[in-house]
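Researcher: Please predict.
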Amino acid sequence: MRSFRGSCALALIGIAFTRGAAAQESATTQPAAKPAPASAFDLGYSQEQPKREGPAGEETATQQPEGFWIFNRPTQVGPMSSDRPGFSDSYSLVPRGYSHLEFGYTFTYDHERSTRLANHTIGEFSLRTGLLENFELRVKWTGMSLTASHFEDVSPWAGRHITREDHDDGATDMSVGFKSPLLKQQGLMPNLSIIPAISIPVGSDSKSTGDVDPEVRLAWNYALTDKWTVYGVGLATWISDGDGRFFQSGASLATYYQFTSNLGGFVEYYGLYPSTRGSDCQHNINFGPVILIEDNFQIDVRAGFGLNEEAPDFFTGIGFCWRF
């Protein structure tokens, strides 16, 4: 009997020892729990950043390093928010320490009476740099404008009707400005940013206004759902021409929907009031997809048409945005 009790005791001690060793081994091999991510308040923001995507969305910093230097930039940022592809500018700023390089091409066609006009705009360059949390530096250049005009004429020799062609090619003016936020979406109040800029007359004689022209834009955005956004801009500018300066205003109203994580689409109305000095107003509509190729590169395609005689009959284009 004593031998049997002794064997049971030894067996129990062996089982306890084996379980204790296994528990100790599990405790030493199990990885430590990761710390919880910092909250928006911990990152220095006054409120939680909305999750927006697309041309009217917001780029949000999800991790913020210490310090206030320009290139102490966030290691992670949200979806890109470019000023392309329509007339409207995005209300959001490029994150501090990052830059956007945007460029594209647009073809425009218009037929009025006996004149057909075709224009190729090549470049549409925009460099946007986040210098501070609330300050974005902007340099824009529309690029080269290649215009071909076809118009009917009468031959001076035989009086026959012929078609003549004229070309007007040259560089356009540049503009320099900045963007700064004014309001954050709260209740019925939209997101709102101000974008002052001045044009620099570096273009060809036939494409340049010939003077420094100021403009102010107000870009707004209102998120209806996580995928659906309405947005637009208001424009006020003082344009120079051969007779001095004239005031031109403009506005847009657009909507953007995010179909998938990589595909969105927009529809936009925009107008210029007036189109040129002494002319009628111009009303347009355009639409198209925005495709996110990868986190820092997107492609957009658009097509549109004029809604009145002053606007072009048709236009289409393609563009790109690269964040670095």
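Model: Residues 61-323 form a domain with the Porin fold (CATH 2.40.160.40).
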